Each structure stands twice: as C-alpha cells, then as structure tokens.
Amino acid sequence: MIPLLDHWGYLGIFLAVVLGNVGLPVPEETVLAMAGYAASRGVLHLPVILVIGVVSAVAGDNIGYWLGHRYGRRAIERFGHLAFIPPQRMQKITSFMTSREPGLLERASDTITEWGQSVPDVLDRLRRAGFDRTERLWTTGDDPEAEERFIALSRTIGEGHRP
C-alpha cells in the first residue's frame, strides 16, 4: 500500500484529490484506485471513500476556480513567460474566450445537470433488472451467463440515454 494511505488514511485521500483538482500535479486517480483496493481488502470503507472522493473533487475544483478567478490573470501576466504564454498569446486567449456564442456555458451546465439527475434513474433500472451492489459487472468471455448479464446491464443502462 502506498505510504499516503498507510499514514494518512481518509485525510490523505481528501488532500490528494483536492490538490489534484486544484491543478497541482498530484496523482489523485491513482490514490483513489489504491483506496479502492484498500477497501476491497477491508482496510478502508468504500462508502466513505466515495463520499470523500466526490466532496474533495468538488472542493478542489471550486478552490481552483476561485484561485484562477482571483489571481489567474495577474499570475499569467507576471509569470506567463515561464509557461510559454507571452502577452500576444494571452490576447488571443482573451479574444477567443470573449467571442464565444452567448449562452454556450449555460447550455453545457444544463446538460451536465440533466446527466447528474439521471443517475438515480439508472441505478433504479439496475435494481429492477436484478443487479445489486455485489453483482460482478464484467466478464472474461468464458462464462456465457456472465456475458448475458453484462449485455443485459449494458442495455439497461442505455435505455434512458438515447438521443
């Protein structure tokens, strides 16, 4: 197990995911994968990991947005040359961002919200189709029954998501 999880546990997961979502080069996906492995071994609890993963990702994204909104332009103007962002490129980026179609971000946000609202519906369909949280959702190809369950699962998930 990686030392972060051994010594820091849930707090280490939270910090790694927050820092990664703020924009620092922290391997938060790897930490979450290792946390999932630890949960499968009974060292950590999966529901707690899931809650921590979601909360820390949202917190990190919001902190990163706030930092960028508050200090981003000044930081790029002052240190942009270190990241190969000369003033000419910054002007191009600014004109690109301000010339976008009005309402584009609002429509994208509405779409993401609709997807998020459909998750409980998908989970309900899975329960009705006979899949519970312990069902093995993958197949190796050598078990015809497992392959049939996998196909049924794919159809069940896809029912409400056709254009």
Structural overview:
This protein is mainly α and 163 residues long. It folds into 2 domains: 1-99; 104-163, no CATH class. 73% of the residues lie in helices and 0% in strands. It has helices at 3-22, 28-40, 46-79, 87-98, 104-128, 144-158. The longest helix has 34 residues, at 46-79. It is extended, with a radius of gyration of 21 Å.
Write a short abstract of this structure.
The chain is built from 6 helices and no strands.
Ordered list of secondary-structure elements with their pairings:
Blueprint: H1 3-22, H2 28-40, H3 46-79, H4 87-98, H5 104-128, H6 144-158
Helix pairs in contact: 1-2, 1-3
Helix content: over 70%
Q: What separation lies between the terminal Cα atoms?
A: 43 Å
Q: How is the main sheet built? A: none
* Model regions low in confidence, pLDDT < 50 over at least 5 residues: 133-140
Q: Number of domains in the coordinates?
A: 2
What is the alpha-carbon Rg in Å? 21 Å
Coarse shape: extended
Structural category is: mainly alpha
Number of helix segments? Answer: 6
Order of H and E elements? HHHHHH
The proportion of strand residues reads under 5%
